[in-house]
Amino acid sequence: MDLKIAVLAGDGIGPEISKQGVAVMNAVCKKFGHNVVFTDAICGADAIDKVGDPFPEETFQVCMDADAVLFSAVGDPKFDNNPTAKVRPEQGLLAMRKKLGLFANIRPVETFDCLIHKSPLKEELVKGADFICIRELTGGMYFGEKYQDNEKAYDTNFYTRPEIERILKVAFEYAMKRNKHLTVVDKANVLASSRLWRQIAKEMAPSYPEVTTDYMYVDNAAMRMIQEPKFFDVMVTENTFGDILTDEGSCITGSMGLLPSASTGEHTPVFEPIHGSWPQAKGLDIANPLAQILSVAMLFEYFDLKAEGTLIRKAVNASLDANIRTAEIQVEGVRPYKCSEVGKWIVDWIEQQ
Ligand code: IPM
Ligand code: MN
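That is the input. Now the predicted structure with 3-isopropylmalic acid docked in place:
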């Protein structure tokens, strides 16, 4: 297969982990005879510094011309600590989502046995938990009408039927591919937007008779995720609820540094780690590249290249088993490996298969 990949390394540890993701992707493409071409493009604080725009037109064009985007991270403390900053790196992320029409954000919540002790939950609760959260990504309060003056402010949680239908369709289809259990998360006891979500989900459910669909208020879902994470298989929710619940999800696994995500929709899909840009570690070669590397696995799987994805997942597990780990997950008595060493070990392992 011919694959054109836009590489958006961004800020902080982004460039370091991006390099490892690209190296692994190259190794897998070589092994399976795929022809891959990478094109770098700037985004985030890096792009603000260079051209004054966190998602410049040129970067948008590189993304539009590509089959997939391998994204790393954006964000820089110099903007966080400056409330008067007119442009922020995060706006680049929102612009990318909107312009590429990335309405479906797929965030797996999966545990790695060797990291379960890092979970804030009891082992028996979290061991074996494996679900995905599908977050609507281009609507709701993030993009609805906003107003702010000194006395009042509002954000509008606006959703249309087509926006709701298309994300629910993605969710039902994921449920069909997994354990056929879909939980629609909303706040239909209070919010009109949620009532429309629930109404449409109920209209669509009969078309997926094999899927057990249940409906849960978001406050209850937040609680259930820590009480019984194994209850969930596929969860679908609107943008803001999804933002909050996916942070909760990534943290209960104890494996935040290992979790990848995919954003798909109308144009080029984007694959990226769930974690952020960790500016304090920039340039130190200590960041964990596994979430980025697993994003490459998700990328292959998106194109139905299952063996390629599986090989990467096996390589990552092998590196963990061999204790080739970065500092934050290394076991006692074994030296921590650098970001580049973990990446190289995984590339070598793939080449030897
Ligand atoms: C995320 C992030 C973003 C969001 C921020 C950085 C705008 O928290 O991807 O979850 O709120 O969507
Ligand atoms: Mn978030």
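The domain at 1-100+268-353 is CATH 3.40.718.10 (Isopropylmalate Dehydrogenase).
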